[in-house]
Design goal:
Blueprint: E1 12-21, E2 24-35, E3 37-38, E4 48-49, E5 59-63, E6 67-72, E7 78-84, E8 86-90, E9 97-101, E10 107-110, E11 121-125, E12 131-137, E13 146-151
Parallel strand pairs: 1-10
Antiparallel strand pairs: 1-2, 2-13, 3-4, 5-12, 6-11, 7-10, 7-12, 8-9, 8-11
């Protein structure tokens, strides 16, 4: 039986990050340092994998339609994988905004905890259906090695729209 492989595998994962600089939250596009590597594991041979690091206690959230999370800091340094629905994240006093649609481009990284950001960010869920998300805190609050590509959200997570 032939094994299918990704014909043009991505080199690195690009992720929209809610971070902080000089006490204020900011939205940035990050390129993770860990490269995608081809899998040799049974069931996913030929697929591309990027390591995201060790995780803490993972939770699953169901968020009501047309809900506002209000102005808040990230409760902890974490990955958030929106699996359905949509979220609009904005930063007060800056005009920065990211529209996140659940699904393949729904992974974000959030690190604007109260320890580094005074005001935090605002999250709204404008859809007519529930939004679902998996919250994945990093072990020991670690931020993965990365480089900032630009201010603002990433257009995609696989870099094909980043000119890299």
């Amino acid at each position: 039986m032939a094994t299918n492989r990704i014909s043009n595998p991505p080199k690195h994962l690009f992720v929209t990050a809610i971070s902080a600089r000089a006490g204020s939250s900011t939205i940035e596009c990050w390129e993770l340092a860990a490269p995608f590597v081809p899998s040799t594991e049974t069931g996913v041979t030929g697929a591309a994998f990027a390591q995201l690091g060790q995780a803490g206690s993972v939770s699953y959230a169901v968020i009501p339609p047309r809900y506002s999370g209000g102005l808040h800091n990230a409760p902890q340094v974490q990955w958030v994988a929106f699996t359905s629905g949509e979220a609009i994240i904005s930063v007060p006093d800056s005009g920065e905004m990211a529209y996140i649609r659940g699904g393949k481009d729904g992974l974000i990284f959030v690190a604007d905890t109260a320890a580094v950001s005074i005001k935090g960010h605002l999250t709204r869920y404008p859809g007519d259906r529930e939004t679902t998300a998996i919250q994945i805190p990093t072990a020991d609050g670690l931020i993965p090695p990365h480089k900032v590509l630009h201010r603002g959200p990433c257009p995609t997570q696989f870099g094909r729209d980043h000119g890299v």
